[in-house]
Amino acid sequence: MAAERRKPAARPRRAAATAKPELPGIGGAAADRLAKLGIRRRFDLVLHLPLRYDDETRLCPLGEAQPGAELLVQGEVIECDIRYRPKRQLVCRIRDGSGELTLRFLNFYGSQVKTLAVGNPVRVYGAVRLGHFGPEMVHPRYRVLDADAPVAEALTPVYPTTAGLGQDSLRRMIARALAGESLAETLPRPLLDALGLPDFEAAVRLLHNPPPDVARATLQGRTHPAWRRMKFDELLAQQLSMRVHYRRRRAAGAPVLAARGQLVDALLKRLPFRLTRAQNAVLAQIRADLGEAHPMQRLLQGDVGSGKTVVAALAAVQCVENGYQAAVMAPTEILAEQHYRKFADWLGPLGIPVAWLSGGLKSSVKKQELAHVSGGEARVVVGTHALFEEAVVFSRLGLAIIDEQHRFGVHQRLALRQKGTQSTRGLQPHQLMMSATPIPRTLAMSYYADLDVSVIDELPPGRTPVATRLVSEERRDEVIQRVRDACIAGRQAYWVCPLIEESEKLQLQTALDTHAHLQQTFPELRVGLVHGRMKSAEKQAVMAAFKAGEVQLLVATTVIEVGVDVPNASLMVIEHAERMGLSQLHQLRGRVGRGAAESTCVLLYQAPLSALAKERLKVIYEQTDGFEIARQDLNLRGPGELLGARQSGVPMLRFADLAVDLDLLDAARDAAEQLLREQPEAAKAHLARWLGGRNEYLKV
Ligand code: ADP
Ligand code: MG
Prior knowledge:
Blueprint: H1 14-19, H2 28-36, H3 42-46, E1 52-54, E2 70-83, E3 89-95, E4 100-105, H4 110-115, E5 121-127, E6 129-131, E7 134-138, E8 141-144, E9 156-158, H5 167-180, H6 189-195, H7 200-208, H8 216-220, H9 225-250, H10 262-270, H11 277-290, E10 297-302, H12 308-321, E11 325-329, H13 333-347, E12 354-357, H14 363-375, E13 380-383, E14 397-402, H15 410-423, E15 430-435, H16 441-447, E16 452-456, E17 466-472, H17 476-488, E18 492-496, H18 504-521, E19 527-530, H19 536-547, E20 553-556, E21 569-574, H20 582-589, E22 599-605, H21 611-622, H22 626-637, H23 640-643, H24 662-678, H25 680-691
Helix pairs in contact: 7-9, 9-24, 9-25, 10-12, 11-12, 21-22, 24-25
This protein binds adenosine-5'-diphosphate and magnesium ion.
Residues 273, 275-276, 279, 302, 304-310, 436, 460, 565 line the site of adenosine-5'-diphosphate (ADP).
């Protein structure tokens, strides 16, 4: 969506108008600091809302200053010394008729010693705590002021800021923006009335300059109607921009891949199982989408093991039935390879040739596969990132299936789409994205509002739940013993090495060491090793040996996180589980419990655990439902980590909190559709106000 362009003559080049900062009267250094806060236009200052409010409207007598409270007090300086124990600091005491208070400054300037000279009257704002010598404030704000100077009439806003930018200068800049910018209403009155929301102008003015009588708790807690208005506006801008992108992509043409049925039915008949109710439901949606003349943009979500692959295969078959090619892209070699095998098993007998493309192929083989793809003999192409390399030319790409979509960047998906468009003279391929990282409904509604979302919300029957054990690293030997017993009894096990984010090299070394050590400990077992740095042929050989039961214990880095499917493996040990994300642990755990045997996942942790780590391990210990885990993860850590690569493109919410503002999100979603349909001008004005030129983020 373009920036609003009311006067085209005055702004001949939109790129120039949106690229350079629009902060009149604010110079280089300050502009840089503002940019750090995300403030690029003067209007962004209007939208830079307080983090909290200080109450400087009432003076508290020193004798009543209770520890724990943030208070405004005043008194006369009766003592001011630089002390050296335990370290250099300025310690000052003030007194009024009712009591005394210590002020402590661990960093201070010489000028402060002068202002706080004995006998001066000072007014101080800060949090009171109990020090060694009674109540004190550490690093309070203070001013030299006569005792009868008036107190503030209203709450004092405190803004998010950055080094070198003080509250006072920020306040001045915001005040100027409030005076200079148009705060006219962008939204229809009936909509606001229905939601009980105030005018935009009234809301921003109140939040920047709260009147004396407003209840502080409703501002701090962001429940005041003015806050709700800003949250709603923010959510609405997000919904609008995503729906605009959705509509724009939908306007393109796509090949009609009608549900003919012959091959799809043949595959359904050949499967060794019946689809679950949930699989059937999403399949019906996908089959209908494919039959339309505009591109499908569907995200298929389903917990680990819910059976997304077969749904994808059935979609691919419908594409093939219509004379088009389908591409299946997966983020890791192991996963792509596994898909390839499954697709070849299912589709081969139907006479559908499946090609395989990965970075690790020998160049002669690769050349041959590429020729099959461009010549059209290959009807389905499975591969890794290699699929969008330049050398890959499709003959007629009708459907792109992207597994673990959050692992791919926007550009990678765009590249695949462009290849499709080139191969079909301008028609865009349908897109089916899949994700086994379930995200809560609120997040999906918010961050995937530019997609249609289907959910497989049940697991195939007959799965035994995985028992999870939390075990301290100190009991590692017992765990090793247990692994041995299980393997000797004919079961198979994974041993997952710790994630070492700081150093890939160290991570690799740890994996090598662990493998050597376990092989030495278990001379009677075959211990395999798989890690991300291995050549793909080596990886394949190890995985095949594990699948065939020749290797009993597989030491692995987190490369096995996604998709690996070996039903006989029923024990998993994860080292340093406290370092891993919850969804990652859930994915890893999903590698066991795929067969009929009772499965166990042992989470080894290094004590002592931080409070957050304890909370998180408790979640994974107690919950088996990926959606519930994701919901609790969201509460513990916020949305950033759950969204993966995609998040870079989507603006994060600053004001709205998806954990509490669900009603506003619902309302914003409905309002976005309605505005785009009935009042596109209002939608445009709203987007310009909230996103300005920054709305070019989601192109795929
Ligand atoms: P995911 O959704 O994690 O990608 P998969 O597609 O790998 O899950 O499916 C997990 C396992 O369940 C596979 O072995 C698959 O063949 C099997 N499966 C899929 N659908 C069903 C079903 N309806 N009934 C029984 N087993 C199924
Ligand atoms: Mg899968």
